[in-house]
Design a protein that fits this description.
This protein has about 150 residues and is mainly β. Helix content is about 0%, strand content about 35%. It is built from no helices and 11 strands. It has strands at about 1-5, 30-35, 40-45, 55-60, 65-70, 75-80, 95-100, 100-105, 110-115, 135, 140-145. The strands form 3 sheets. The protein has a 4-stranded antiparallel β-sheet, with no helix packed on it. The chain has a 4-stranded antiparallel β-sheet with strand order 4-5-6-10, with no helix packed on it. The protein has a 3-stranded antiparallel β-sheet with strand order 7-8-9, with no helix packed on it. β7 and β8 (about 100-105) form a beta hairpin. The protein is globular and about 40 Å long. Mean pLDDT is about 85; it is low at about 1-25.
Length: about 150
Amino acid sequence: MTVATAPPTVATAPPAVAAAQLAPAAGHDGTVVEVHDGTRWVPVLPYADLVPGRGVAVLLGGEQIALFRDRTGHVHAVGNRDPFSGAQVMSRGLLGSRGARPVVASPMYKQVFDLSTGSCLDEPTAPDGTPARLPVWRVRTTAAGT
């Protein structure tokens, strides 16, 4: 089992209002991606459904989350809402790195966000004056049924 956790200073998502009740079918190898909703681990999709270098949007309760599998196989979960445009598009962003940091560039205005912390590496504040950051969720992969 691989577990990726965010540092304790990262803002966590609020508990899901209506988390998925049914587990997704496991991938061909039986591995499922789970996201922590603030209360419990929620299975969201088979690991095999995440194509390296591409994102997928999932709904956890009432919150859209962008899931990414990087080229090393690590899974990252951040908010899907771009704080600069307000559009739910981060799952369509471009994955890359700045130094050793895994990052995603917004497909809208191209600001780059650290996938580990959610912080924008280009601008400290969004147009509305709030900190420019994406919420980060804890994510793990597990064998189906565990």
